[in-house]
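Journal club side-thread
Mid-discussion, someone asked how the predicted structure for our own chain would compare to the paper's figures. Pasting it here so we can look after the session.
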Amino acid sequence: MSVRRSGAVAALLVAAVMLSGCASSLSTLLGGAGRDENGQIESGGDLDVFTITVGDCFFDDALAAATGEEQTSTVRAVPCDEKHAFEAYHDFTLPEGEYPTVDAIDEAAADECLPAFDEYIGVSYEDSKYDFSYYSPSRETWEYRDDRLVSCVLTAPEGETLTGSLKGVGE
């Protein structure tokens, strides 16, 4: 999930920026989520987990029913003003090296996601009615996609749905 840029990629980025409106429309036509010029989800649809960004709102049936080693590759993204189950609020990169243990990933997520939770919501995790979870690399994405990205996501208590962004709600 991490992005690496080189000289050759820089030229492609210019082309990608010029074509981003077309790509968004094409993605929407193919059943994917569409983004506006500011990168916000403007039309719902499938979204690859490697493209989730801070502020995205979505449903994820696998995360909602997570047990053990379940993996998610796509989520159903929606504009945040529509009902949703999760909102991405922070991401960070794990250090290079061997694939970490589950306990090491959990510890890194707590170290990164908790302070970011307080900042994003506007109240401490302990005083909030909301909860958090996170997406982390699988062994396969770590090895074959050089995936080091962990995405922290907010959730409502007891499986309730959310409407509107939770940024700065203070509860």
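Post-session note: The chain is about 30% helix and 25% strand.
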